[in-house]
Each structure stands twice: as C-alpha cells, then as structure tokens.
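Morning F.,

Quick status update on the modeling queue. The single chain you submitted on Monday has been processed. Sequence for confirmation:
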Amino acid sequence: MKVKICGLTDVETAVYAAEVGADAIGFVFAPSRRQISKENAKKIIEELPARVEKVGVFVNEKPAVIEEIAAACGLTMIQLHGEESNGSCQVHALPVVKAVGIGKVEDIVQAEQYEVPYLLVDSPKGQKYYGGNGATFDWQLLQSKALENHRVILAGGLTADNVAKAIATVQPYMVDVSSGVETDGKKDFVKIKQFIQVVKGVEIR
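Structure tokens below.
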C-alpha cells in the first residue's frame, strides 16, 4: 500500500518522511496554511530520492502557471484540487491526479467522467480551503466497484487510528494524509512514522 504525505514545507520533514517509507510527497501551491513557494519546493525536491513522487497541488490554477512551476521545481505529478474540467486535466505533460469531494453517490458518478490515471477522493471541500480539513466521509460509498477504472487515492481525515479500517473498506491504490500527522498544525515525526507503519502493515485482499 502506497502512502502520500501532503503539505510538507521543509527539507528535514520531507526527507524523514521518505526515509520511513513515504511513496509520495505533496507540495501545496494553492492558498493554504501549508502553502509553499516554488523556490522552497525545489530545495526540498532536490533532497528527495528518485523513487518518491513529487506531487504539486493546485486549485483552479492556469495550466501555463502549473507547467512553469512543475518544470522549475522538478515535480513528477500534478494534483488538481479545484473545479477543473476533464478537458483541463488533459493538457499537462505530467500524470494528473484529479481530486474530488465525495458526499453522495452522485459525486461518484460525476468523478467517473474524469479521464485521468488517478482520482483522489476526499471529503467535500471546507469553508475556506479545498482539502486538508481533517474530515472523513462515508467510505461505504466507494464499495461495489466504484471508480474501478481509476487508481484511487484515499484522503480525508485519515489518521493512524482509522486508516486500517479505511483501507479495508475502500481498498485504494494509495492513502493520502496531511492534518492527520500534525500536532498543533505542524507535521509530527512520530505521527508520520506511526501512520506509515500502520499502512504498510495492512494486508490487501
């Protein structure tokens, strides 16, 4: 089972996350308390091993801006976390992760229209920010072969305490955590390691 740690803003934490087993690191370029500049993201990415995916998170950003940041930083994947259309997902050279909020069955039907290799399923957007709000959604909605034509990345309120149940229910390709490995709004090394250990210990049928 793969793990993405999102919203990292410093070299030390990112390198540590990679060392203890993170498969992907997310960098938030959209307005957020975890927002990072392309200069700082580049410094971090230069220190990460090649095996780790470097994912840039954008919300309703112009494709040209995304491409410029991706090239400048050395991103390997692009995550679109706003109201981007299926067409706007097709213009990027890098693999695209389209994030969708899941609150009802109709949201799954709409998500299936995206022709992208990865769908990140999250709780519906919060009052202020898209994603990173620490709220779960009804994982049962993703049973019965929902989104079977996509690699599903499960996000939304995951912690070391609930991620095993989430994986057993959804059986995703990857799990994504941000606030669930934080203490007082900052990434916590102990929680990062604990989360990854739980995920890597989960057996998928």
